[in-house]
Write a structure and sequence with these properties.
Blueprint lengths: L5 H17 L3 H17 L4 H7 L1 H18 L4 H26 L3 H10 L4 H30 L9 H32 L18 H21 L6
Helix pairs in contact: 1-2, 1-5, 1-9, 2-5, 4-5, 6-7, 7-8
Length: 235
């Protein structure tokens, strides 16, 4: 399944993500998350490696989950837990969908977006953004390492001082990211990016019967779950 057309992967994950965003029932979200996870693994994605790369963002996800539980609490525990579980399952779905799309490769992914009639400038921007997120994580990691080399153990600091340290990291990380983004933009301009309104491609992608079957499967499955959630019919 590693040779699926990138358009198949994108549109299938779009159906999965749409179902994850529209459904707020935990029992119906579980098959959505499982579908995203299994599909990503069939495409060669290692979920553990994805978790390791995004471990710095997992704290933010858990914080958002806890806050959702707190604000959903109105004297009953189950609705609060349900609200937090919905946020957690939605984020897991989006992460697995993004990892599956990134597994297509930059060249094939950009060509797939272009053949979906998306302007090639936007196609390049989408894939540069997907590859820019790990770079942002590396900037945060390097800044934390620099602080630890100065003898500051962040894990032993009180919560208030820890928040203050992270606030001090925010400006240099954003500044370094902007400098790196400017370097990428200069590199693209030097290579003649946007010199002509259209670009040619050495290879073109072609859909096969298996691609169409996969897209129909995920579209039908997502539609059934969404319609069942909104009470159109019951599975």
């Amino acid at each position: 399944m590693k040779k699926l057309d990138p358009r198949t992967v994108m549109l299938s994950n779009l159906c999965i993500s749409l179902a994850g965003l529209l459904i707020r029932d935990v029992l119906l979200l579980l098959p959505v998350v499982v579908s995203a996870l299994v599909f990503a693994m069939l495409l060669g994605v290692n979920p553990w490696k994805v978790i390791q790369k995004l471990r710095h963002f997992l704290v933010m996800i858990l914080f958002a989950t806890v806050m959702q539980c707190v604000f959903s609490y109105h004297g009953a525990i189950w609705p609060a837990v349900k609200g937090g579980a919905v946020i957690l399952l939605r984020m897991a779905t989006l992460i697995m969908s993004g990892a599956a799309i990134a597994s297509c490769g930059a060249r094939r992914g950009i060509q797939g977006l272009i053949q979906l009639k998306l302007p090639y400038e936007i196609a390049f921007m989408v894939y540069i953004a997907l590859h820019f997120i790990p770079l942002l994580g590396e900037e945060i990691k390097d800044s934390l390492t620099a602080i630890q080399l100065r003898g500051v153990d962040i894990r032993r600091l009180p919560l208030r001082r820890r928040v203050r340290v992270y606030s001090y990291l925010f400006l240099p990380v954003i500044g370094a990211s902007l400098v790196r983004a400017q370097d990428i933009a200069c590199g693209l301009e030097l290579r003649g990016f946007r010199a002509y309104p259209t670009r040619t491609a050495l290879r073109r992608l072609h859909l096969c019967a298996r691609d169409i079957m996969v897209m129909l499967f995920f579209a039908a499955g997502s539609a059934c779950l969404i319609l069942n959630y909104y009470g159109v019919f019951v599975i």
